[in-house]
Every structure is written in C-alpha cells, then in structure tokens.
Amino acid sequence: MIDLLVANGTVITLDAERRVVENGAVAISGDRIVDVGPFETITGRHDAARTIDARGKAVIPGLIDVHAHAGHGLIKTMGGGRTDWWYEACEKAYTVGSTEEFWYAESRLAALERLRFGVTTGVSLLGGGDTILRTDEPAYGAAHCAGVVSVGTRSIVAVGSTRPPFPRTYARWSETGKREYPVAFETQLATCRALIDRWHGTHGDRVRIALITPTLRAEHQTGDPVLLAEALAQAKAVRALSRERGVIFTQDGHTKGSVAFAYANGLLGPDALLSHATDLTDEEIRICADTGSPVAHNPSAIASVTGRCPVPELIEAGALVALGSDATAPDRSGDMFRHMQQCMHYHRRHFRDANVLPPGRVLEMCTRDGARALGLESQIGSLERGKKADVVLVDLRRPHLYPANMPASRIVNFANGNDVDTVIVDGVVALENRMATLVDEDQILDEAQRETDRMVDRLGLRHMLEMPETFWRNVRG
User: Are residues 320 and 240 in the same domain?
Assistant: First the structure.
C-alpha cells in the first residue's frame, strides 16, 4: 500500500517526454514518487492510505528558485524606493544589526512565502549580496536552517566570504547592548566549514549548504592590485573548499568581463552557479556553455534593469539557464509564476518577437533546469518514478484560468502564486487548502513583524520607513 495518491488532476510531468496526463495520478510512498500516469492505470496498481482529490487542478513539480537572499524578507520597502538607502539598510542589518532571532524569523517568513507560492526548493544567500554576508559565526546560518526546516521546504543556503579589505566589523546584540568585533577571512571560512559539517544534507536532504565568494567585476579587476590579489586568493580558497566538500559554488552579480575573469582563474564548472550574468560578451556565452557553468537568471531584479542576461543566446549556445527571484526586496516577491511571465516579456521586448521563450521553455527553467543547476536533477524537477515527492497542486477553477484548455500554457501565462492550493514536499503535505500544515502562519507573521521592528529600532532606521516625497505625482523617484 502506498502512503498518498494525488488523483484526478491534470498532471504536467516535465518528464523526458513532457507528458501531460489528463485525469492523471501521482502515487507516493514515503518521500518518493512510485508511479505517475492515467488515474485508472495507477489506481489499478496501488491501494492508498490517503487520497487527495486533484479534480480541477493542475499537478506540477515543485518550483525551484535558484537565486534569492536570506534577510530580504524583513527589509522589504526600506528606503521607500531609494536604492542607496535600501543597500545601507541591508549592510547595517546583516552585519551589525541582526540577531539569531532575526534570521530565524526571516527564514520562516520567506519559506512560508515560497511554500504558499509552490516553491519547494530555493537558494538563499545568507545576506544581501557578495559583500554583506552574515558569516562571522555559525549561529546565524544555523538559525536560518532551523527556520526553513520548521516550515517544511528545501533550502540551499549560500555562505562564504565578504569582499576585502579585512577585518570586517560585525556585532552581536545581547541584553547589555551591542558588542562589535573584527572578523577575518579565516573566521568566515571556519564558519562555512562548521555549517557544512552540521547542516549539509540533513533533514532528508532538505537542507544543503553552498559556498559563495565575491564576483570580481571590471571595477575590481582594474582597482587596487593589492585588494584584487587578496580577493582572488580568497575566491580560490572558497572554490577549493566547495570542490573538497562537494557543494555548489555560486557568485552573485556577474556581468560583462567577470565571467571571463572567473574562467581564467579556474572558478567555473558545472557546480558553479553564476547569478545575473548581464551584458555578457559572445566569448563569455561560449565559456558558460563549454564549462557547463549554469546561469541564474533573475528577470525581475534591479540588475536586469541596468543590464540584460542574454538568456535565449545562452540556451541556444548550449548553456544551462535557470530562473531566480532575487528574493523579496526591494520590489519583488517569491512568486515564480510572476518571474516566469516577466522572463518571457523581458526577452520578447528585447528581440521584438512574441515567439521568443515559449511558455513551456520557461516552465522548464523553473523546474528541470533549476534542478540541474543545483546538481539535483536525479532528485527533483519533474514528476517521475523514483524522484522526491515534491508536488504542487494549482487550482484551475478560477476565472483568470478559464476556459479549461491547454493547461500547461495557462499555468505559465495566467497563473500566479495565490492559485497554489496544495504543496507536498518530501512526501509530506506542507500546504493544504492554501494553509500551511506544519506551522502557525499567524505566529510566523507576528514573529517577522516583531524582529523587523526590533532591528529598525536597534539601528535607528525608522526614517527609512517614511513615504518618500517622490512617491506620488512624480515620473522619476
């Protein structure tokens, strides 16, 4: 007898044949899918302890977000649209203003948002980019991991070194106030080792650790040669650790010239996830393809306003491109349906061609390709026998998703995260009837509000929550 049968739904498998099974079923035993196919066939083979009726729903693999930032969930809207203020808030919060409670509350909020949007697996950089990671000690990364585990989703937590010069100032808060202290690169590397030892592959492999090091863009390559040499030596040390421990290596903010530099210094490969990758040269597109280095495309990010990731060109050259949200701040969300739609329109506008990136291709970027980019293609990314039971039910009985035809197209073109009804992760029903089953949603929201207020008051940032003068009536902020 199997544990769970998802029955009577339209099963969009994303398997090798891209089967779409009307009135289909998915059979689950433990944390694995054991059978997928037509309802009559599957029910003829299996008796189930529990059945979920998916009538009127699409059944899809769990969505995958290959690039986001832990911490951003509690920094939403700060600065009122002023990017410089928002970056200031990030830097202060993530180095001298955050506590373990902050990271725990934020991870639960972000995981709950992902869960309710059908995102079962996500990458989260432990901070706001490549210069303000919270890696002075393991406690903060551990708090993030514990929070995600409680909600029931999967997280690949990227930790690593910040940009030179060192030491960098961090702070710990207690009842007696703030204690600042200097942190060296060696301390950050020791933090990474400790988090890998404690968390990587735990909780049914729902928690994994990745390593990150600053991207060396043109301004760094032509800047202070002493700092460049230091940064490059540290990047190579972090990359060596990623290879030694068999974890994903990532870099945030790649753009023209930085991919070629990373390649020349031996940082690339199939386990090196390059985020943003805007304005790449033809040579760099070829480098991504030849080295098998996957690209995390974030079409809704600020980086995609200031530059363009050449997604169609990369894919046509043979490179792997997966989709990311870039997290929930300053102006985004974790809704990968939104980012799929943004991805299509973004590149169609560039080429002035409505046929660029068909809906199915973008859905692949958010499922199969995301799994490949994370080295997890044998585990997740499609609904197939033997894979992890990460399954999402999308309610199609909604006005914006009718009439009931071409369900795979409707899922990408018209659905949004609020259409997600049920989410199964590792065979466990973590969301049912649009409500989390493992946690109290109100408690998570209240914790998030409390820790945000504490952080804002701790750092004296109340002024960043005021409505900017340019909010109304202005064309430019």
Answer: yes
